[in-house]
Amino acid sequence: MIDNSVSLKPIKPKRISDQVYEQLRELIFRGEIRPGQQLLPERDLAEHLEVSRTTVRNAINKLVILGLLEQKQGQGTFVTTPDAGKSNPLATMLAVDDITFSDLLEVRLGLECNAARMAALRATPQDIISMEKSLHEMDEGISTGDLGNAADAAFHMSVAFATKNPVQIHLMRNFYDLLFLGIKKNLSHLYDHPETINTVQTTHMDIYQAIAQKKPDDAERAMRQHIVFVQEWFRNR
User: Fold this and answer.
1) Which domain holds residue 180?
2) In the chain, how many domains are there?
3) S-S: 216 plus which of 37, 117, 174, 204, CB 3.0-4.6 Å?
4) CA-derived radius of gyration, the chain
5) What is the spatial distance between Cα 197 and Cα 92, in angstroms, rounded to a whole number?
């Protein structure tokens, strides 16, 4: 039997605004609501979520303070980007230092191999669905001539979110646009070679399958192969 020396705290129900905040934050962290994308107006969000506009406003204000959203006068509320997020030190560093695409890939190697391993241990069914959705969007984009950058980014953010580690998620969120800004500028060359794109998509699928099957060693190995392949491809160009 638990005695009186054990410190127990009463369970408090979450406020509705906190639940709205957490749901919107999760969509941003997963990459399902993407940088630069506009949110629905407060009235529409309130109707979809079946809550009051005040509740939605409170949740949005918290996300603005956190730096995940920004409000533009007369336009609406948008997911922030590095250009918009003046406090993002990585964006500032990119603006003033001579950072190369290779530098970004080296950091990805450390962050994302670890993320893939943790994701394989902790991913929920919803995380797996998010990864599947992103892979499907990438395939569709490639088939229609779209480079699929947003879907590529969303896939990697889905992996990061699946780690359930708030530090990992925040690091990847701050790194998100900087990584894929570089990818957007460089992938046009990568995508000129169909056999290369097939390899990139195959390694994405390997990462997904290892995470879905809860194989951390395989997930880490697949992520490393994916990033090293991209590194070597650009190094040889």
Assistant:
1) 89-235
2) 2
3) 117
4) 20
5) 32
pLDDT of residue 2: 47
Co-location of 144 and 106 in the same domain: yes
Give 116-133 pLDDT, tens digit per residue.
Answer: 999 999 999 999 999 999
pTM over 0.70: yes
Dihedral sign for Cα 157, 138, 107, 89, please. negative
Is there a single domain that holds both residue 50 and residue 105? no
pLDDT band at 85 (very low <50, low <70, confident <90, very high): very low
Does the CA dihedral 183-184-186-192 come out positive or negative? positive
Most confident stretch, 59-73, 113-127, 177-191: 113-127
Exposure on the CB side of residue 22, measured as CA atoms within 13 A: 7
